[in-house]
Amino acid sequence: MAGxxxxxxxxxxxxxxxxxxxxxxxxxxSTTVAHELTGAASDSPxxxxxxxxxxxxxxxxxxxxxxxxxxxxxxxxxxHAQMWLPALNRIGISHHDKVxxxxxxxxxxxxxxxxxxxxxSIYPQCSASRASWISQIxxxxxxxxxxxxxxxxxYSAASGGTQEFxxxxxxxxxxxTLAALASSRAKLAVLGDIVGFSVDPPSCLAANPxxxxxxxxxxxxxxxxxxxxxxxxxxxxxxxxxxDPTRWLCTSTCSSVIGSFIAYYDSDHVSSSYxxxxxxxxxxxxxxxx
Length: 290
Known about the structure:
With about 290 residues, this protein is α/β, with parallel strands linked by helices. Helices cover about 35% and strands about 15% of the residues. It has a single domain, classed as Rossmann fold, CATH 3.40.50.1110. A hairpin with a 2-residue loop joins β12 (about 255-260) and β13.
């Protein structure tokens, strides 16, 4: 896994577009990618930024970008907010912004009462933390707030973990969060979700070094449907910026390998190296709020 000083240089928009457009034709691991495979599962922000490993719940716990800047950008959500930190840290430095991360694993930015699948129980810490974050943000009056979360495989606490949220429920939950943030006077953006894989990319690639596309995901992945349309609609209604990251990851399919990058460190998260590579295109997409 690349250390903070060894993250790749940012790609240009044309470089990213070219690598993505040709990613579905990659059949075998190159020598470079095969060498990276041994550390692919550790190419994560929890390793790169250890303070974020278990969550960031206060405005001072996980501060990045230009840390002493007077202008603050808050990033709020679950691990899908955390995974973009390698890019957002670079964007904060280039824009001279402090970047504050607020997140809990499996706790979406949308105001929803969720069921924590791996403990088979309700997740009251999520709802309480989200309310606390919004209160903190309201008092801070940051320049911008970026929301990001996983929208697939998220189950309703009210159903006892037997039912995923509907599009309508998700849109209402994201709209509620956006409305609650309005009093902070921050510019608002929703960084949309990625496509989830049905396999673990690093493990699959190790088992299929000459059949890379066996480790791809369809776009959309009907086995793990998300709520991209619901988040887009909520953002539009709130006059917030919506950023769709799938264009930087997928054609009609999402390849585990893009150029010389293993683009995912597990089935649900973009690798830190690839996120850092996307810092220029992500910064351009967020320009309306930055």
